[in-house]
Design goal:
Radius of gyration: 24 Å
Number of helices: 9
Number of strands: 17
Structural class: alpha+beta
Order of helices and strands: HEEHEEHEEEEHHEHEHEEEEEHEEH
Distance between the termini: 77 Å
Shape: elongated
Largest sheet: 7 strands, antiparallel
Length: 349
């Protein structure tokens, strides 16, 4: 027992002594040469969930008794964001499919979404780097999937933060290969029973987003229809940072004092509030920053033309997660009501 404790103490001391310089380390992922065919033409890496110690800014190790030993060296990028980007890049190399992390940058929605939830992502003082957890593949018109992963690789526990960073890059590459091979690969669909089709059922699902259990209202501007006459509305995507998405899932948002505007050929959400995400620490977001909204060129042109008419404006109405779990906001093309119009509306109620 004394020998084991001495070995752990020596490893921890070597780890901490290697932490003087540099101040931060970036993970370099190896280039993946192999190819893997998958079922989907496009995949969104929607969410990567890490244990609190793995999402911390400091690079750390774990001793056999579970103690986390943090160094003074930081990750060069937020681990949540970096691992999402690494998975997206690795999967794109492996599959030649269109793969990107949230926020999805393309107008057409991805064919599938991928959630990865880590139970462990840790470098042990025993020289083993472990990654365990679950994955979830969401498909709107197809079979959804889930499964577990349990990966490990050897590394030099006395190599300091640089060795840990290299090991993390290698194990995320292994995880990417595992996900392409097991979670996303093509599998023959089940044959439908003779004389039965699914088209009616899918039409029913599409007809009402709110009936879907994944649909969730995040924030609502309850005065929008009282203060404005809504002529039309447009569903917009939102470009969000990782910490903002996690905050929205906890319900920390307000759009009551926000507005939308077309500026320099882009659509922006101005003065919306998204609460800080405490676990983000150094890599958090600005609560009331301007956020870019994603619409088609035709929709953008229609909204611009509408705002050139006297009294017309763009009003945020409701922010929500749609059936795919993607954050969306509905923008109303509206005209401000006069006082007597508001009184009439109040009388009708």
């Amino acid at each position: 027992m004394t020998l084991i404790k001495s070995t752990v103490a020596a490893t921890a001391l070597a780890f901490l002594s290697a932490c003087g310089t540099p101040d931060s380390i970036a993970v370099k992922t190896p280039v993946l040469e192999q190819q893997q065919s998958i079922r989907y033409a496009s995949v969104e890496v929607k969410d990567v969930s890490l244990p609190s110690y793995a999402s911390a800014d400091e690079i750390s190790q774990q001793s056999p008794d579970g103690t986390i030993i943090a160094s003074k060296v930081l990750w060069a990028d937020s681990p949540d964001r970096a691992i999402s980007l690494e998975l997206g890049r690795n999967l794109a190399q492996l599959t030649r499919a269109r793969v990107a992390s949230e926020p999805w940058p393309f107008e057409q929605e991805a064919a599938a979404t991928l959630d990865v939830r880590f139970v462990d992502l840790v470098a042990g003082t025993d020289g083993v780097f472990r990654a365990t957890g679950q994955y979830f593949v969401g498909v709107f018109e197809g079979r959804e999937r889930s499964g577990q992963f349990d990966l490990s690789l050897a590394y030099d526990p006395n190599g300091g933060p640089a060795a840990i960073a290299a090991a993390r890059g290698a194990i995320i590459s292994e995880l990417s290969t595992f996900l392409a091979r097991d979670a996303l690969r093509y599998r023959a669909p089940l044959r439908a029973a003779r004389g039965h089709t699914t088209s009616g059922r899918m039409a029913q699902v599409k007809s009402s987003s709110k009936s879907d259990p994944n649909y969730k209202v995040i924030a609502e501007n309850r005065r929008a229809r009282f203060d404005y006459a809504i002529e039309d509305d447009v569903e917009c995507g939102i470009m969000l940072e990782g910490s903002e998405v996690k905050s929205l899932r906890m319900g920390g948002s307000n759009i009551a004092e926000s507005y939308a505007a077309v500026e320099d050929g882009e659509l922006w959400l101005v003065n919306s509030y998204i609460a800080p995400y405490k676990q983000a620490k150094t890599f958090g977001h600005e609560e009331r920053r301007r956020r870019k909204l994603l619409v088609s060129r035709k929709q953008l042109a229609d909204m611009w033309n509408a705002t050139q008419r006297k009294g017309m404006t763009l009003v945020p109405m409701v922010m929500y997660f749609n059936h795919r779990g993607m954050a969306k906001i509905k923008i109303g093309i509206a005209k401000g009501k006069k006082l007597h119009d508001k009184r009439e509306d109040s009388a009708k109620r």
